[in-house]
Specification:
Blueprint (H helix, E strand, L loop, with lengths): L1 H22 L13 E4 L5 E7 L4 E3 L2 E4 L2 E2 L7 E7 L4 H8 L4 E2 L5 E4 L2 E4 L10 E5 L3 H4 L8 E11 L3 E3 L7 E9 L14 E2 L7 E4 L2 E2 L18 E5 L4 E24 L4 E6 L6 E5 L5 E6 L6 E17 L8 E5 L1 E6 L1
Parallel strand pairs: 1-12, 2-13, 7-11
Antiparallel strand pairs: 1-5, 2-3, 4-10, 6-9, 6-11, 8-10, 11-13, 14-24, 15-18, 16-17, 17-23, 18-19, 18-22, 18-24, 20-21, 20-22
């Protein structure tokens, strides 16, 4: 029995010796048993906007992306990112969209070749994508389908590196385009149009409730800001639709009500346009075209270029609370050309 125990211990010792010898091999592994320093990048897909106005193009496209590696780099690692438009069709099919490729001349891709310095695990110079500053080029971006920029990691070299096999998801930058004819710098009308003197036959409708202790909705066409109606919608956004009876060409809308001047202790006319409201127009009362969003309190909504339409829709966002979306209006008119 004693000899058997001795043989067992001798055998176990031999196995341990072989194990230590294997561990002394020159090749090293990370925790996954991979001899390479894997370079990876995470999906950072973003949504952006382009707003076209008659005088300029406004865009918020400004994207940065960092590549990383699984352990400290033994030497500098050169990483390359590229736009890959071959991914667009599959994206559109999966998301039921129709995004178009952004024209090459509109894209500015900085640091497409990045470096992870020796001893580090993240690039020193993240990729940066923005749009060109060329106003003539930007003004051509008007696709109603929107645009998309697919970015992906394409290569890694140096520092015993290779691309990750499972952390290489591309980032998709989607861009919606809207046209905004609204002059956000103007809060009062200073153009050459004149208010329509006879608003007979104009009709106002709403999806909200017209409060009975104020004037009826028709009062907004009597030209008197002191006779105003109060409308609210607790359950969603409030719509005020105006049918002017015929098409007018106009470059401004006046919407006011009664307020209070605390300096003179008297009633005064105040604007009721407020931030978040949107203005749309229509030729038939069914198909609406957005003309822009109000950005600050104003008496008048002023447009860069004249519009021609029969119908106007004011949309008031729901702010919550007891009334939800609400509007007090005493005068509604347009500055006709």
């Amino acid at each position: 029995m004693k000899n058997r125990k001795n043989l067992f211990y001798i055998g176990m010792f031999a196995i341990c010796v072989l194990g230590f010898a294997a561990c002394g091999d020159d090749e090293t592994y990370d925790v996954y048993g991979d001899p390479y320093n894997r370079v990876y990048i995470l999906d950072n897909s973003k949504e952006y906007k382009i707003v076209q106005t008659p005088i300029s193009t406004v865009s918020n496209v400004d994207f940065t992306w960092e590549a990383r590696c699984s352990k400290k780099a033994s030497g500098d690692i050169r990483v390359t990112v590229a736009v890959d438009n071959s991914l667009i069709d599959a994206y559109n099919e999966e998301h039921d969209t129709e995004f178009e490729a952004l024209p090459v001349e509109t894209v500015v891709l900085e640091n497409a070749e990045m470096t992870i310095p020796a001893g580090e695990m993240v690039v020193a110079d993240a990729v940066h994508l923005k749009l060109t500053d060329d106003a003539n080029v930007l003004s051509t971006l008007k696709s109603a389908k929107g645009y998309i920029i697919p970015l992906r990691l394409v290569s890694a070299e140096g520092g015993n590196s290779q691309l990750s096999t499972n952390m290489l998801a591309p980032s998709f930058l989607t861009i919606t385009v809207t046209e905004d004819n609204m002059n956000h710098e103007a809060t009062r009308y200073t153009g050459t149009g004149t208010l329509v003197a006879d608003q007979t036959g104009w009709i106002a409708t709403t999806n909200g409730t017209v409060q009975s202790w104020y004037e009826p909705i028709e009062a907004i066409f009597d030209g008197n800001y002191e006779t105003y109606c109060s409308i609210s919608n607790r359950s969603g956004e409030l719509l005020l639709d105006i049918d002017m009876g015929k098409a007018y060409s106009f470059d401004g809308i006046k919407m006011t009500s009664s307020g209070y001047d605390y300096d003179t202790w008297t009633e005064k006319e105040v604007g009721v346009f407020s931030a978040g409201m949107t203005v749309s127009t229509s030729d038939n009362g069914t198909d609406w075209k957005a003309q822009g969003e109000i950005e600050s309190d104003a008496e008048d909504c002023v447009f860069y270029a004249p519009l021609t339409a029969r119908y106007i829709r004011i949309t008031v966002p729901n702010a919550g609370g007891w009334y939800g979306a609400s509007l007090e209006c005493g005068v509604f008119n347009v500055y006709a050309k």
